[in-house]
Amino acid sequence: MTTYGRRFVSLACAMGPVDARDAAKEALRLYHLIEKAVFEAGYDALISPTVATTRIRADYDPTTDAPVIDGMRVDPYAGWFLTSIFSLLNWMPVVTLPTGLAANKVPTGLQIACRPYDDATVEAIARLYDNAAPAMPFERACHAGRAS
Predict the structure, then answer these.
(1) Which residue from 104, 116, 110, 117 is spatially nearest to 132, judged by alpha carbons?
(2) How confident is residue 146, by pLDDT bands cut at 50, 70 and 90?
(3) pLDDT of 8-40, one tens digit each?
(4) DSSP the chain
């Protein structure tokens, strides 16, 4: 098991009912902030990138590494990727779509999130994006000399 996998198992084993209640309250607080800022403001969806930076190494280990974005250290577990909030708010339908490659060849993406149970809007926006987005030629992931 990875170092961060062991950390999450350890955290889960130490979590009690009060922790679970507090986590649920925090998830609801976050959802209400999104509800007010996005949906009550008249928007049908929240569209955001999937990561805050593409400068994370492939061998990144959140138990020993701390990413820096715009000169500020961020949470090594959730400060650089922007999908965790929707994992916490798992009643919101979300679609993640590829958008291409960053300059350093790291894949990029966007996520579309809508109100709970509004799967049809998420799908409609994703289809519109897919139909309008230019084709993304990805380089083959095989090395020279290897069979494809």
Answers:
(1) 110
(2) very low
(3) 888 889 999 999 899 889 989 999 999 999 999
(4) --HHHHHHHHHHHH--HHHHHHHHHHHHHHHHHHIIIIITTT-S-EEEESBS-S---TT--TTT---EETTEE--TTTSSBS-HHHHHTTTS-EEEEEEEE-TTS-EEEEEEE-STT-HHHHHHHHHHHHHHSPP--PPP---TTS--
Rounded CA gap, 124 and 109, in Å?
17
Alpha carbon distance 130, 148 (integer Å): 28
Q: How far is Cα 93 from Cα 39, in angstroms, rounded to an integer?
A: 14
What is the pTM assigned to this prediction? 0.77
Q: Is 26 helix (H, G, I), strand (E, B) or coil?
A: helix
